[in-house]
Amino acid sequence: MPVQKIEKSDFLLRCWVVFHRNGYHNTSMQDLAKATGLQKAGLYHHYPTKQLLMESVVQYALEQFRSYTLSVAHDQSLPIEQRFEKMLRRQRRLAMIERQGCFFANIALETGRDEFFNKMLLGALDEWTDALSMLYGYFYDPEQARKEAQRLIMEYEGAVVFYKLTGHEQYLEDFVQRSVHAFPATSLTTANTSLGI
Amino acid sequence: MPVQKIEKSDFLLRCWVVFHRNGYHNTSMQDLAKATGLQKAGLYHHYPTKQLLMESVVQYALEQFRSYTLSVAHDQSLPIEQRFEKMLRRQRRLAMIERQGCFFANIALETGRDEFFNKMLLGALDEWTDALSMLYGYFYDPEQARKEAQRLIMEYEGAVVFYKLTGHEQYLEDFVQRSVHAFPATSLTTANTSLGI
Amino acid sequence: MPVQKIEKSDFLLRCWVVFHRNGYHNTSMQDLAKATGLQKAGLYHHYPTKQLLMESVVQYALEQFRSYTLSVAHDQSLPIEQRFEKMLRRQRRLAMIERQGCFFANIALETGRDEFFNKMLLGALDEWTDALSMLYGYFYDPEQARKEAQRLIMEYEGAVVFYKLTGHEQYLEDFVQRSVHAFPATSLTTANTSLGI
Amino acid sequence: MPVQKIEKSDFLLRCWVVFHRNGYHNTSMQDLAKATGLQKAGLYHHYPTKQLLMESVVQYALEQFRSYTLSVAHDQSLPIEQRFEKMLRRQRRLAMIERQGCFFANIALETGRDEFFNKMLLGALDEWTDALSMLYGYFYDPEQARKEAQRLIMEYEGAVVFYKLTGHEQYLEDFVQRSVHAFPATSLTTANTSLGI
DNA sequence: TATGAATGAGCATTCATTCAT
DNA sequence: TATGAATGAATGCTCATTCAT
User: What is the percentage of chain A residues whose pLDDT exceeds 90?
Assistant: First the structure.
């Protein structure tokens, strides 16, 4: 079915939605067939196994995450602290899709033991850390900046757990507020609460 | 099979191990039968559905978590900051069982959507928050103490994601170090890094 | 559990209700345990197999049918044609219990092939035929009376099929009206539509 | 498997035989798999549930009944009374298949409570009634013809109960003889007892 | 007498996957 | 490239029955 770039992208998006909604093991090839409009056998024409299909989906999710969230870190048109907040707000927005939280963490915790997706998922965390490190790097030495970045992600993942269990968006909002407030640059600038995104 | 208290506890422990290892959906009743020595039909003699069995397992896990980790917060024989560190070290140790991370978060992220276990899992987070709040309460007002407690748990869950993906225990250790260092009391006392556990 | 006559009778009645409602194969020992208040193992204390339990239930049903319906044929206090109509009205009433129709025919059609209950079920039909033959015997020779009796039962069973499928009691009522009207004695007597039962 | 018309028909016939022999609840998908040569999972490729498969089988049985028995009523090449007798003889023949009696009544009495097949089964009775009414319509007014038709079916179903329980084909034969004898046209014509079928 | 525990076989159904067309 | 048909293994769960107590 994925005959053009656009179609393949749409195909993977539809699969992503299903995997994100149900988790890896709780998603059947039948579910994916229904969601994409292909026949079950059609899926196997493009991806030899469910695992490999999922691999493509994770890859796709990472690409989307790159262009939607991580790219903000390098957006020269915005000041550092605005890039920081914009990234957090986009993370927040992603977590709220169907109240499913962080796709990477969901898959990581569900399938971490098999190590099959670990490398890719870890890659996602790494790029994420890099992007945030870059921003922290304006105020901290590289090592410290990296630690701050990782800590931010950790808090985010934790906030997502609370959010997913309760449905209270406040956990995510508090996370953003707190992190923005603690971000070095913010103490210098003032009142930039609402950005476009 | 669980005809005596000890046997039921052992039964639930064995189920917990399997669920923790495979996740909820990736664990079959057959897996549990093998792990517990019962026949599949025997499991249904005690628990009418897989979901309800899991509910008992989560309940059991919470009880264990209470007596192993949360109880430390009220251990009058230890100073506040030692209780704090001891709790974190026990959290850390739990996360390292088969490198599976936090049982509650694993289940929460995998099954959060159906809301069936949410109440219990949220109860676990609440009690956990309460215990840590109590300790923070020595140095902060109640509201702030609660926020610190939640933030600690969030960081822990995030650290666990990194640990589970990489297998590097350093992420957990760093989390403990950092948290202990940031704990108010610790600045007054000195050098109590390694407790028994 | 069936320790006294009354209790055993109650026990069998409860089983009868369940078998009548669900059919033989669609009734489980669990269903019977629930309906009677015994444990499953308790049932096996009194009846070695489901089949033998059912045999007792059929026996019980026949006894009830004898005393409730067939006995009317010999009720000397009523004229022949009133006995006839009263029997039919009682048959009708039985068929309307939970809209299940004729217990004997239900079991006969469901399990007829195995022949296990056939002898008893056939006994029921025989006694039934005898009772009606006796009444027809006042107007026909024995052989003809027997044929009339069988034909009446056949029509009854057929009417029950229509009733069970549609839920329209009219089929049963029509059967009664038509049969009463065709009964020889009735042409002599007049207006005895409603009896006590 | 049913990829051609003929094969689907054969498939349904094989299922019909099994359902007719064992009843609905006493037939397992395994039984049907064995009888049709498919694997259990293969059955589900064509029919999503056992109930829906049965629905198709009932539909198929009705179609067969239409073309084998009901169509005789409109066979212009035969005089009315011969059509009537031919229909009864075909009913009789159907009842004798493996001594199972009337498929529609068997299913009706076994599953009538859940109402799932009722509509179709009632449809069968209706068409049956229509066909016979048409024949009776040559001698009675429409309302009376319909009543006669229903009564005939009722007697047939009752005769089948006796036949199934005893194995005596005489009950069916008597039913045919008696009905043919009572059929209005027959009193005019003479001696046409044995037709081809 | 009664029951809680247990079981092996079986239930309807779904799984990821294959293959002929 | 795509699909309808098929499958063997497994799914969660129920069955009639047994047995130690």
Answer: 87
Is 90 exceeded by the pLDDT of residue A171? yes
* Confidence band, pLDDT 50/70/90 cuts, at residue A190: very low
The verdict on D175 touching C (C-beta cutoff 8 Å) is: yes
* Structure confidence at residue A186 as a pLDDT band (50, 70, 90): low
Predicted structure pTM score: 0.91
Asked if C136 contacts C179 with a C-beta cutoff of 8 angstroms, the reply is: no
**DSSP string computed for D136-195:** HTTTS-HHHHHHHHHHHHHHHHHHHHHHHHH--THHHHHHHHHHHHHSGGGGTS------
Q: What CATH number is attached to the domain comprising B32?
A: 1.10.10.60
**Residue of D21, D112, D161 lying closest to C164 (CB–CB):** D112
Find chain B residues with C-beta within 8 A of A91's C-beta: none
Residue with the bigger pLDDT between C196 and B58: it is B58
What does the alpha-carbon distance between residue D170 and residue C184 come to, in Å, rounded to a whole number? Answer: 26
Of the candidates B164, B197, B163, the one whose C-alpha atom is nearest the C-alpha of residue B88 is B197
Residue of chain D nearest C113, judged by CA positions: D100
Contact: B112, A118; criterion CB under 8 Å? no
| Nearest nucleotide over every DNA/RNA strand to the B43 CA, judged by C1' | E6
Q: Which residues of D touch C101 (CB under 8 A)?
A: 109, 112
Going by C-beta distance under 8 Å and a sequence separation of 6 or more, which residues neighbour residue B160? B95, B101, B102, B105, B171, B172
Three-class secondary structure of residue B28 per DSSP: coil
**A73-119: pLDDT as tens digits:** 999 999 999 999 999 999 999 999 999 999 999 999 999 888 999 99
Residue with tokens 């209780």: B83
**Which of C68, C100, C125 is the last residue in one of the domains?**
C68
Closest CB to A164: pick one of B109, B158, B165.
B109
B157 vs A192 pLDDT, higher one: B157
Statement to judge: residues A52 and A137 lie in one domain: no
State pLDDT tens for residues D155-197.
999 999 999 999 999 999 999 999 999 999 754 544 444 444 4
d(CA C151, CA D175): 9
Q: Which structural domain, as residue segments, surrounds residue B24?
A: 1-68
Is B156 found in the same domain as B116? yes
pLDDT tens column, C13-56: 999 999 999 999 999 999 999 999 999 999 999 999 999 999 99
Regarding whether A158 and A128 lie in a shared domain, the answer is yes
User: What residues 33-92 of chain D have any CB closer than 8 A to a CB of chain C?
Assistant: none
Same domain, A152 and A81: yes
- For D97, the closest chain C residue by CA position comes to C113
How many Å from the CA of D172 to C1' of E9?
A: 40
Nucleotide lying nearest to C41, CA to C1' measure: E3
What is the total count of domains within chain D?
Answer: 2
User: D100 and C113: CB-CB below 8 Å?
Assistant: yes
Is C147 in the same domain as C193?
A: yes
- How far, in Å, is the CA of B27 from the C1' of nucleotide F5? 30
For residues D83 and D169, state if they share a domain: yes
